[in-house]
Amino acid sequence: MAIKVKIRELAEKRGMKMIELKNQEQLKNAIKRAKVDRKNLLVQLTSIARKYRVVNRRNNQVYDVIFRVNADGKRYGQCNCRAGEIGRICKHLAAAAALNTCLAEQGLLN
């Protein structure tokens, strides 16, 4: 519970918009962009569950991506890149979602 509150507070402090992640179709274009740029995107785990650091090796920019699942099962994601700050699903979010999904399927997330 404390981790969820911490993630929400961190996101609000940074002005990040939560984007409801409803289905794979919604992520389709972002996934395509992430695949095209896959050699330049490095997704790193952080010490906070469901929070990732995505490094764009081409321009050395670092982005924070956060995922949240509400009690009602709705899933949300955030990225602090320019697209994410205006509520768009970006390639950083798509890249981090792949790792987040893999970890969740293995039961490694709370």
How would you summarize what this structure contains?
This protein has helices at residues 2-13, 24-36, 82-85, 91-105, and strands at residues 19-20, 41-45, 51-56, 61-69, 75-79.
Structural overview:
Helices cover 40% and strands 25% of the residues. By secondary structure, it is α+β, with helices and mostly antiparallel strands. The chain has a five-stranded antiparallel sheet with strand order 1-5-4-3-2, sandwiched between helices. Helix 2 crosses helix 4 (91-105). The chain starts with a helix and ends in a 5-residue tail after the last helix. The mean pLDDT is 87.
Layout: helices, strands, pairs:
Elements: H1 2-13, E1 19-20, H2 24-36, E2 41-45, E3 51-56, E4 61-69, E5 75-79, H3 82-85, H4 91-105
Helix pairs in contact: 2-4
Number of strands: 5
Query: Which ranges are low-confidence, i.e. pLDDT below 50, for 5 or more consecutive residues?
Result: none
Strands of the biggest beta sheet: in what spatial order?
Answer: 1-5-4-3-2
Order of secondary-structure elements? HEHEEEEHH
Structural class: alpha+beta
